[in-house]
Structure formats: structure tokens, C-alpha cells
Amino acid sequence: MVARWGEGKPVIGFLGELDALPGLGQEAVPCRAPLDGPGHGCGHNLMGAGTAAAACALKAAMEEEGLSGTVVYIGCPAEETLQGKVYLARDGYFDGMDLALVWHPGAADMNFGEMEMNAMTSILYKFYGTTAHGAHPWEGRSALDAAELTSVGSQYLREHMTDKCRIHHVYHAAGEQPNIVPDFASIYFYIRSQDDYNEELVRRMNLIAQGAATMTETRLEMEMKTSCHGYFCNHTLAKYTYEAALKIPPLTYEKEDFDFARELYRSVTGKDCPDPENVIPTAPKKPDGVVQYCFGSTDVGEASYVLPTIQMYDCGQVRDMPSHHWSITAGSGTAIGQKAMLYAGKFWRRQVTTP
User: The pTM is what?
Assistant: First the structure.
């Protein structure tokens, strides 16, 4: 989805995300109360609406002040699998933009994008073998054996990759019955590293999968799901965004918001928050020009390699809550997330319209 208003330069882009995570459906209450289906365990419901609010506010301000320029809002899907913005960049959706603005809620004080994040390649390794009954297993060639050997091989690779690398995997298919040799199995890998090392790490992971297929006399197919750049830090945009945040009223919460946050903290950690008056982060953290390294990944990285981009992180969640967790879904459905969403819209509007 793309919405556009105005004409001429500058062309200001707002990247709104709407995504969810499987199994994290949750009522907006401070204890585990699951709902069927996915949930916003990363706050994407706030991201999509917050950037839309910013785009609308900027349009109104430009009309009021007689400013020229173009406002573009892009609804970006599939951030969790790092696919959406990769395809949007490939298909030219970011072409002609002078600036892209993004906000991601979080459980800490506001960080204005001074971070580096990992590039990531995701690959589904699919193995095809020969089925056989468990009474005569020598007649089969187990695809599951190949998948398991790939998993084992990835463990040995860990000693020989750089400290900033991360490899994760899950099985997508592993057979149906224990007494039948599986003729199909698949294992899904996320392969993360700094940009300049990702190709090498993927090459070595592919060799492991190929070796597993050779050992088991199975056939391997490799399906690359996505390959995404790491996030590229823009210190200049960090400075201006922080200054914009200082020009608007601070983010504040009511007593009932703090009560909810403290109860949620107890539900998740089993103890009281050590700083109960600061259980909801709101403070802007002044950029210091030092890049923090984050081992995670985001497809915003793809946009950051195409045009000047900033993703402001944090606020809108209860402090120290784990990411991709039901507690994030719970907080994102309350005023804790909603007030931060509107706040993000205000400071993006202020940044763009203030010289």
C-alpha cells in the first residue's frame, strides 16, 4: 500500500509496518491470557499506525505553513521474515525519496538509531530421500538424517565464525511416524552476521547441508527466502531527530498505566520492578556518535542502503520485557503503547518541518 500527497522536493517517506508473530495472541491484560492466532509481540500494530499519524500530521503542517514537498507513506509487510522491504527496494518503491523515517517501539529509553544491526540470509534446506519401513531401514535413505546432520554441522561451525554472528534454525518437516524412514525433511535457518561476512558464512552453511546430503545419499534443494542488509547508522539524522524530540511535550503516563506496567513486570519476571517509577521508559537518550551493535536484524536495513534512513527505537513497552513475547502484545494493546504511538507521530512531524 502506498499513499502520496504533495509535489516536488523534498520527498519524505514514512515506512509503516504491520506484522505479527505466531502463537502470541494475547488479551491486553497484565498476565498470560492467550488468544488463538498471532499477536503483535514486536509492536508492529503501533508502528504502522504511528508512522501513518506522522504522515498525516506532516501533511497538515505543510498545508498550514505553505511548505512544498511530497509526503509518501508505504505500508511495509513481512518485517519479521526480513522480506518486505527487500522486495520494495528491488521494485523501486524507495526510488526518488530523499529521506525515510521509521519508528520501532521498545522496552528501553529512546535510542535515535545509533546502532548497527546484522545482515541476514534465511534458507530452507529441503532433503529428499527414499522411504522404507522400520523393519527394513537399510532400504531407505533418511531425509531426516540429512536435516539432523545439517543441524549438527551448524553447531561445529560456531567455533569458526566471528563473535558477531548468529545462526538459528527450526525443523519444518521431519517425518510422520517413527517406524517409517522419512523421504522428506526440511530445516529452516536464519544466518546472521555483519554485511561483509554474510556471504562467506552462508557459503559455509551451504557446504554443511551439501555434505549432509552426500553422507545420507539424499537430494538437497536450497530455497533462499531472503537476504537482507544490516542496518546502516546515520548520525546526522540521529542528531536532528533527538533535537526534534526535545521540542515537543514529553511522553507521560497516568497512574493506571504504571499500575498495569508494574503488574506485568511481576507476571513476567516473578519479582517487583527495582525502579517502579521508571517501569515505563520515556526518556530520550542523547546521541553520542557511538554505534551500538545489535545482534538482531531488520529489513529497514535494506532501505538504509538505498537512501538516508533513520529508525528510532524504544518507548511504548514496559521496561526490560523480552522481545517477541506475549508481554509485548499485552502492552501494545493498552495506553502504554498507544500514547507512545502518538508521541512518535509528533516528533517525526516536528523533525521534518523544523529547520
Answer: 0.90
